[in-house]
């Protein structure tokens, strides 16, 4: 065991640089994937058979294939096509495919959107019929009911499964290390391993950082659940 190397200032700086990159990727994919996930959730519960079929096909593919394969399909697949590379200096949005970070973030966002869509669609379907009928009785239209009543209620009830999905995506960002040129927490551990041949120490320290971040996020989500879903808990008399 050579833990002294791990706790050297330069090594710790490397790890925290990777940790910061992990946070940045997580924030970006949650934002982009969150917006797309809401759109696909609305498509899943829409009255249009075409929209439902399109959304269900998308979520079926995303949930039925590994995230790593999705990253490979975008970075080593789409981004390496000759016609894409021939146009990526002039044609938007192909201009972004020469950026490895964009390719990884696109894969992460698509994956997150697929899972979030199913989580949110399930919560929307479980909305109390009484809430919806009361909203219609007050003269609200379909989209007003969805925006003011159904979506806020569904988002609160979707917090527990959503928190699990966020944890999975945070761990999933480690797969960005498979894309050349990207640097995050797992990449930092790999670099320490290459430089010092400390496989056990390098990856165990990275695992410890993941654990700290995971349990911190879990605590924050538990606080959010207590605040926003308290009305769903049974009350003692």
Automatic annotation (TrEMBL):
InterPro entries assigned: AA_ABC_transptr_permease_3TM, ArtM/GltK/GlnP/TcyL/YhdX-like, MetI-like, MetI-like_sf
Alphabetical GO biological process terms: amino acid transport
Subcellular location: Cell inner membrane; Cell membrane
Keyword entries, A-Z: Cell inner membrane, Cell membrane, Membrane, Transmembrane, Transmembrane helix, Transport
Transmembrane segments: 20-45, 57-78, 202-221
Domain ABC transmembrane type-1: 19-221
PROSITE patterns to which the protein is assigned, alphabetical: ABC_TM1
Pfam family, one: BPD_transp_1
Gene Ontology, cellular component aspect: ATP-binding cassette (ABC) transporter complex
Recorded topology in the membrane: Multi-pass membrane protein
Signal peptide: none
Top-level lineage group: Bacteria
Gene Ontology terms, MF aspect: transmembrane transporter activity
Entry-linked NCBIfam families: HEQRo_perm_3TM
Protein family per UniProt: Belongs to the binding-protein-dependent transport system permease family. HisMQ subfamily.
Protein name (record): Amino acid ABC transporter permease
Species per Swiss-Prot/TrEMBL record: Vandammella animalimorsus
Lineage: Bacteria, Pseudomonadati, Pseudomonadota, Betaproteobacteria, Burkholderiales
């Amino acid at each position: 065991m050579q833990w002294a190397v791990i706790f050297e200032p330069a090594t710790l700086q490397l790890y925290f640089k990777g940790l910061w990159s992990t946070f940045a990727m997580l924030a970006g994919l949650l934002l982009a994937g969150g917006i797309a996930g809401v759109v696909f959730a609305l498509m899943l519960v829409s009255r249009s058979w075409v929209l439902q079929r399109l959304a269900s096909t998308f979520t079926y593919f995303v949930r039925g294939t590994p995230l790593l394969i999705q990253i490979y399909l975008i970075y080593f697949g789409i981004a390496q096509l000759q016609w894409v590379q021939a146009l990526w200096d002039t044609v938007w949005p192909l201009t972004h495919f020469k950026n490895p970070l964009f390719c990884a973030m696109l894969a992460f966002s698509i994956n997150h959107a697929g899972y979030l869509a199913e989580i949110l669609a399930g919560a929307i379907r479980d909305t109390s019929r009484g809430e919806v009928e009361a909203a219609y009785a007050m003269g609200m239209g379909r989209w007003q009911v969805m925006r003011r009543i159904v979506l806020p209620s569904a988002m609160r009830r979707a917090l527990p499964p959503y928190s699990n999905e966020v944890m999975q995506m945070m761990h999933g960002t480690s797969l960005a290390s498979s894309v050349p040129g990207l640097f995050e927490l797992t990449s930092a551990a790999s670099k320490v391993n290459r430089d010092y041949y400390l496989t056990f120490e390098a990856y165990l320290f990275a695992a410890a950082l993941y654990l700290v971040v995971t349990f911190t996020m879990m605590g924050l989500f538990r606080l959010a659940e207590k605040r926003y879903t308290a009305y769903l808990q049974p009350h003692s008399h």
